[in-house]
Amino acid sequence: MQKYLTIYHDLAKKIKANYWPKSTMLPSENELTAMYETSRETIRKALNLLAQEGFIQKVRGKGSVIIDVNKFDFPVSGIVSFKELAVNLKQETRTIVSELEQVEADKQLQSKLHVEKGEQVWKVVRVREISGEKIILDKDYFNSVYVPELTQEICADSIYHYLENDLQLDISFARKEIVVEEPTDEDRELLNLEGYSNVVVIKSRVYLDDTSLFQYTESRHRPDKFRFVDFARR
């Protein structure tokens, strides 16, 4: 077995055994070079494989931080509200409503929500906090034809619960796109992103049972906390 693979397996075994606690820094490349009596290039290969397999997150200018190997599963194929997701996380969670307002649809929103110029849409920006860390930024836009009213209380609890139970809307399916982007100024202001150079963004268009498009959303995630999962069948 090539030496970098032997080092990778040893480091992965130590991380799984909590030899170094999650969210702490792995020893530096120089320290690992001395520990394993090898070249820096070999250590870098082992570290790259650790990063690819989700054991560490490389932080620019600082080194490698150890990721909790028990990442939160985020279902991609379903339509799940954060409140429903939080039940399975078994972690302390909180939703912070940063913005709630009606805005006129600009060209981008006209395209994303299939509305006419000047139509009113709800803009909702919420920060999701898990175990005291702000790690998800949800930016939702709702067509006011289908969602005529929203309140701070509804947005802090569950919009989907309100839509389905109070407004009796039949939420049916969504088209989703997953991309990795550089954090925006808004991401850095509202999320705990120090040292992280990208965010994972799930962009969704959500439809009612009659195929009416009523919601466009961007769910922006810090990359170290989530494993995006799906179920496929041939």
Describe this structure in words.
- Keywords: DNA-binding, Transcription, Transcription regulation.
- InterPro entries: Bact_HTH_transcr_reg, Chorismate_lyase_/UTRA_dom_sf, TreR, Tscrpt_reg_HTH_GntR, UTRA, WH-like_DNA-bd_sf, WH_DNA-bd_sf.
- This is Trehalose operon repressor.
- Residues 1-69 form the HTH gntR-type domain.
- The structure is a single chain.
- The protein is α+β, with helices and mostly antiparallel strands and 234 residues long.
- It folds into two domains: 3-66, Arc Repressor Mutant, subunit A (Orthogonal Bundle), CATH 1.10.10; 72-229, Chorismate lyase (3-Layer(aba) Sandwich), CATH 3.40.1410.
- It is built from eight helices and ten strands.
- It has helices at residues 3-16, 29-36, 40-52, 82-89, 107-113, 152-157, 159-165, 185-190, and strands at 56-59, 63-66, 72-75, 93-104, 120-130, 133-143, 171-181, 199-208, 213-221, 226-229.
- Strands 4-5-6-9-8-7 form a six-stranded antiparallel β-sheet.
- A hairpin with a 4-residue loop joins β8 and β9.
- α1 crosses α3 and α2 packs across α3.
- The longest helix has 14 residues, at 3-16.
- It is elongated and about 65 Å long.
- 22% of the residues are buried.
- The model has no long low-confidence stretch (mean pLDDT 89).
Please tell me the overall pLDDT: 89
* N-end to C-end Cα span: 35 Å
CATH fold-level topology of the largest domain: Chorismate lyase
* Number of β-strand runs: 10
Our count of domains comes out at 2
- Global Rg: 21 Å
Helix content: 25-40%
What is the overall shape?
elongated
Strand order of the largest sheet: 4-5-6-9-8-7
- Quickly count the helices: 8
Q: What's the level 1 CATH class of the largest domain?
A: Alpha Beta
**What's the CATH H-level superfamily name of the largest domain?**
Chorismate lyase-like
CATH architecture of the largest domain: 3-Layer(aba) Sandwich
- Main sheet summary: 6 strands, antiparallel
Share in β-strands = 25-35%
Low-confidence stretches: none
Order of helices and strands: HHHEEEHEHEEHHEHEEE
Which structural class fits the helix and strand makeup? alpha+beta
